[in-house]
Amino acid sequence: MINPLREFASKAARSKPGRALVLGSRRLAFSVRVQRLGERSLQRVMTRLPQMAEWITRRLEPVVTRVTKTVRVGPSGEVMPPVAAVTREELLSQLQAARTWQGKVQLLTALSAFDDALALAAVSAALRDTSVEVASAAIATLGVYDNPASRAALHEVFDNPQSYYHPLSRAAALLALAQSREPSEQAHVRAALRDSAAEVSMAAIAVLSQRASQADLDALTEVARDGTGFFLPSVRAEALRGIERAELRARVDHAQPPHQHTRTGI
Description:
Number of domains: 1
Number of helices: 13
Number of strands: 2
């Protein structure tokens, strides 16, 4: 039985005006380049990985560094009693057997104390874990290593040539590279402001507002004043907050005696 509504739509699409409308909508869908942001995934990661929320700031006040108690988590997520020392081999074995993202995150963090080829290989393999929290923990550990091999792995995540990595993983890679002792790694941050993923732009904003050179502040001002429609409103607002935070830190540092410093973070 022929569906009259479907038959009408089919005829309309084959007509000259109809073809023009379909063609125009396709051009619009693929030609307008604007940022995207997976809000649901973003909220999920902010809830399950609080340290990732530090650079997605929601307020003007500086973030106070908190000292947290480190606990060991077993392969099934259970809390394990503290030990004096854990060997690299034990950590690698536990990581291979781990079944929860919480356990993997804890083990990957512990592997940051072992900067060698075996640890690097295991941590690099975790970059492709199906959990973005695990990938982010691997990225943080690679940032601690800060050697040519680990930086190459971070570039693979950030550049994302195969479009595999989650935007939050790419944002974490940018943050890790920005903290590198290698000066050449600092050059990527301003270019990352115009990334198609809003999460990456926000990570760049966090770094630039922390460095707060005049060139960095000028770049943030361009984002905040952008009228092209490329940046999401939340990104433009975050750029403005980044400028305000940088100005606040400058006033606080100027008010402190030379021998005192107030330590703040993004």
